[in-house]
């Protein structure tokens, strides 16, 4: 395993149910090709590490937007996540760079962006395909979240 991947795995492994922020998540509306989505914002290290883990379901037209301070290669996995998801890696302007279906039956599999990305958007598996959304489409944040400076 590469050192960078090992570090991310170690950070993600450190998140436990008790550490996952659950009270009053920051939510923002966004639009993709006219489809509205309400997303929780994961802009802190703890929120990004926990993501959608420890949840039984995700309502339709809901998701989680992961916000990073800079563009970088992003790594995700499905540890402690039982919801089948699709992840979109986005550039600084919200353009979808790539999409990956994520399988909760493979909790150790790493989903890596091929290009540096600033955001990642997780939704129920198939949501993008069902709504005719693909690579090159743009996610428009109706209320822009900011990075909180926590790393």
What's the helix and strand layout?
Layout: H1 3-13, E1 27-32, E2 35-42, H2 45-50, E3 62-72, E4 75-76, E5 85-90, E6 96-102, E7 111-112, E8 117-124, H3 127-130, E9 139-141
Parallel strand pairs: 2-3
Antiparallel strand pairs: 1-2, 1-9, 3-8, 4-7, 5-6, 5-8
In short:
The protein is mostly beta strands and 151 residues long. 14% of the residues lie in helices and 35% in strands.
Q: What would your notes on this structure say?
A:
The protein has helices at 3-13, 45-50, 127-130, and strands at residues 27-32, 35-42, 62-72, 75-76, 85-90, 96-102, 111-112, 117-124, 139-141. With 151 residues, the protein is mainly beta. It has one domain (3-141): Jelly Rolls (Sandwich). The protein has a 7-stranded mixed sheet. A two-stranded antiparallel ribbon has the order 4-7. Strand 1 and strand 2 form a beta hairpin. The chain is globular and about 30 Å long.
Walk across the major sheet and give the strand order: 6-5-8-3-2-1-9
The quaternary structure here is single chain
The third-level CATH topology is Jelly Rolls
Main beta sheet: 7 strands, mixed
Gross morphology is globular
Domain count: the total is 1
Structural class by secondary-structure content: mainly beta
Q: State the low-pLDDT regions, or none.
A: 1-18
**What is the arithmetic mean of pLDDT?**
84
> What's the order of the H and E elements?
HEEHEEEEEEHE
Number of strands: 9
Number of helices: 3
Q: What portion of residues is helical?
A: 10-25%
**How far apart are the termini?**
23 Å
Classified in CATH, the superfamily is: Protein of unknown function DUF192
CATH architecture classification? Sandwich
Portion in strands: 35-45%
